[in-house]
Amino acid sequence: MSGTSPSAASLYSRVEKVIPAIEWPVFAADIDAILRLKRERNAVILAHNYQTPEIFHCVADIVGDSLALARKAMEVEAEAIVLAGVHFMAETAKLLNPEKTVLIPDMGAGCSLADSITPEDVRLMRQRYPGVPVVTYVNTSAAVKAESDICCTSGNAKAVVESLGVPRVIMLPDEYLAQNIAAQTDVEIIAWKGHCEVHERFTPADIRELREAHPGVTVLAHPECPPEVVAEADFAGSTAAMSDYVGREKPARVVLITECSMSDNVSVGYPDIEFIRPCNLCPHMKRITLGNIRAALEENRHAVTIDPDLAVRARLAVERMLAV
Ligand code: 13P
Ligand code: SF4
């Protein structure tokens, strides 16, 4: 490991199974700079489970699914938060920490679900279904959250829907998540037509082929996958729920039907488990790199701002979710 600085070098053992030694020097200088900048700026890095291993395992202070990142964002004591994830996650962190600086290393880190719906669309849904509460997936803009009664994530969607004590809810914008939750509850769910561009590409035939090629494989799927895909899986849950499943059940062979970095990040902790790795990349998550995390800390960019009136309403929807 010549050419790496001591602190980055000491971190390499965490990722040696998923990052070839020849690639490590490329990361090491940025890792050391980020570790120093975090101390100097009193900053923490929150990273989603889809971040690449050198971010997830080497510079992040808090990792998790969308729900965990929202929960833990509330407990942060540092002055600045760098959100290694996509824009809606940074907005959620800012909603919960209006006084803190929240940075997103690349403003282009969006989400096809967040792009699928506008505040005007939500108002039209309310007109069409008067009195029906609106449950909004966190994968939306703060402006859409502000039009909603309560938010949910893939980790708590069923509990949120059922917490309202009503026979019917509008659930926006992920059609497949809505259908997958509808299959688990008596509450009638009115859905929108948004899809995750990563998970919508998986098909039931993919799962059947995997099972044929890898006998005995345990199939875990994210609930943003189409219901026909979830029906072929052994388990469906949020990114954290999939990771917990692996830790709890320790299947001999597993495939995670989700974004590619998940398997890299989870496999590091379970050297005896065989991870089969067909996956789809999220181009938005992959915009975040060590280089732009370093630049975010060096140049204080890109600070997330939210219109204060809108933030009050959006924050309420997120806080209601966190109270469930
Ligand atoms: P999780 O809340 O399960 O981490 O999912 C977030 C996401 O963007 C999945 O595509
Ligand atoms: Fe959005 Fe899908 Fe990417 Fe998650 S994986 S951030 S839902 S596009």
Automatic annotation (TrEMBL):
It is found in: Cytoplasm. Keywords: 4Fe-4S, Cytoplasm, Iron, Iron-sulfur, Metal-binding, Pyridine nucleotide biosynthesis, Transferase. It comes from the Bacteria. One of its GO terms (biological process) is 'de novo' NAD+ biosynthetic process from L-aspartate. Pfam families: NadA. It is an enzyme of class 2 (transferase). [4Fe-4S] cluster binds at residues 111, 196, 282. It catalyses: iminosuccinate + dihydroxyacetone phosphate = quinolinate + phosphate + 2 H2O + H(+). The keyword Mitochondrion does not apply. Its cofactor is [4Fe-4S] cluster. InterPro entries: NadA, NadA_sf, Quinolinate_synth_type2. Pathway: Cofactor biosynthesis; NAD(+) biosynthesis; quinolinate from iminoaspartate: step 1/1. Its EC number is 2.5.1.72. One of its GO terms (molecular function) is metal ion binding. GO terms for cellular component: cytosol. Its main location: cytoplasm. Belongs to the quinolinate synthase family. Type 2 subfamily. Catalyzes the condensation of iminoaspartate with dihydroxyacetone phosphate to form quinolinate. PANTHER family: QUINOLINATE SYNTHASE, CHLOROPLASTIC, QUINOLINATE SYNTHETASE A. This is Quinolinate synthase.
